[in-house]
Design a protein that fits this description.
8-stranded mixed β-sheet, alpha/beta, 6-stranded antiparallel β-sheet, 13 helices, 2 domains, Beta-Lactamase, 36% helix, 358 residues, Rossmann fold
């Protein structure tokens, strides 16, 4: 159990819509709300508070780094990183929302994701920077599948975030460090657990990448996240996880197994809060060839020119948000790779490979 003072601080932050809380021993807590940092008007956590937090997260007194999950008062759940800085203890707690949102509320291509989720086998990747809502998108997709199809879903997470209530699906949720030693080992073992769908919280090394491809190749629907800011970059990052000598074979395997990639990021909205801007593509005949041959610059061009029902570049998503008045033009200009092309596209002027679909 954490201390009552720390419990109150976490509840206060949650009530204000904080996504993250930064704790530093002897200093006031800081909350991240809609991407901005705010100091909380509450007492700094002391040694006793941090002792209790360390214990509640299962950390030993002298432990320097640990990832864990935490259930606080009022039913709030957090993903926790414990660490030390200059010898003093600190922690970052990411709030896990209790209610799984519907796909249609997230600003992602919901119909396309639902179609991807009907596939019997293959690899579906959701990418984006830290805090971009990747886990929430995949949870919303699994929640939709839970209400529409009878499947056994195995998840390997660090830590477990959303808790699923079985409807038509059976869920086996496993936490790295508690139920399995690593993503790679949990993924490898999951193949013996009669799964239909496997979710791995993050592909982060060659072992987990190879296991993910094996799972997709042996008839499972594989859902995974990667840290990447564009779809082609996500494909490249997955390839680069493999040793040099294995990359050619990995590209060819990936080209046939990949269902699609969704890359998302959260952008400040004019009315407050944040909205999703998305890039995505469904892996079909031409993109399969480009991936197999490592022609990823051409893949990014293909996404810009593709059918908007199955492919869309980030710039088109931002153009729509700006034209709708949801996002300020200056905010979008800071995000796009080619601001001058974006400005021309806003005026309806095509430029090179820039897409101006409406």
């Amino acid at each position: 159990m954490i201390s009552p003072a720390l419990d109150d601080a976490l509840a206060n932050a949650a009530n204000h819509g904080a996504s993250d809380i930064i704790l530093r021993e002897g200093q006031p807590p800081v909350a991240r709300i809609n991407g901005a940092l705010f100091a909380l008007e509450t007492a700094p956590p002391g040694a006793a508070d941090m002792d209790a937090l360390w214990s509640a997260c299962g950390a030993l007194p002298g432990e320097t780094d640990r990832d864990a999950s935490l259930a606080a008062g009022g039913g709030e759940r957090f993903r926790v990183n414990l660490h030390r800085r200059l010898g003093e203890r600190g922690a970052v707690l990411r709030r896990i929302k209790r209610e799984i949102p519907g796909l249609d509320t997230l600003g992602v291509p919901a119909d396309l994701l639902r179609e991807w989720g009907t596939r019997e086998a293959g690899l579906l990747i959701v990418s984006g920077p830290t805090g971009s809502g990747k886990s929430t998108t995949l949870a919303a997709l699994l929640d939709h599948i839970n209400r529409t199809a009878a499947r056994h879903v195995v998840t390997i997470e660090d830590p477990v975030e959303y808790l699923f209530e079985p409807a038509l699906c059976v869920f086996t949720q496993r936490e790295v460090g508690v139920d399995t030693p690593s993503f790679a080992e949990g993924l490898r073992r999951s193949l013996r657990q009669d799964p239909d769908i496997i979710l791995v919280g993050e592909i982060r090394d060659a072992v987990s990448a190879a296991a993910a491809l094996q799972a997709a190749e042996t008839g499972h629907l594989m859902l995974a996240t990667l840290h990447a800011s564009a779809c082609a970059e996500a494909v490249e990052r997955l390839e680069l996880l493999f040793p040099q000598a294995e990359r050619d074979a990995a590209r060819k395997t990936l080209s046939g197994l990949l269902i699609g990639v969704l890359c998302q990021r959260l952008v400040p909205a004019r009315s407050g809060g944040r909205v999703a801007a998305c890039e995505y593509f469904t892996n079909e005949a031409l993109s399969r060839r480009l991936i197999a041959e490592g022609r990823l610059a051409e893949l990014q061009d293909l996404i810009a020119r593709g059918d908007p029902r199955t492919a869309r570049p980030l710039q088109d998503s931002l153009l729509q948000l700006v034209r709708e008045g949801t996002v300020d033009e200056t905010v979008a200009m800071e995000i796009v790779a080619r601001p001058q092309d974006f400005a021309r596209a806003l005026k309806g002027i095509a430029s090179g490979a820039t897409s101006t679909r409406r």
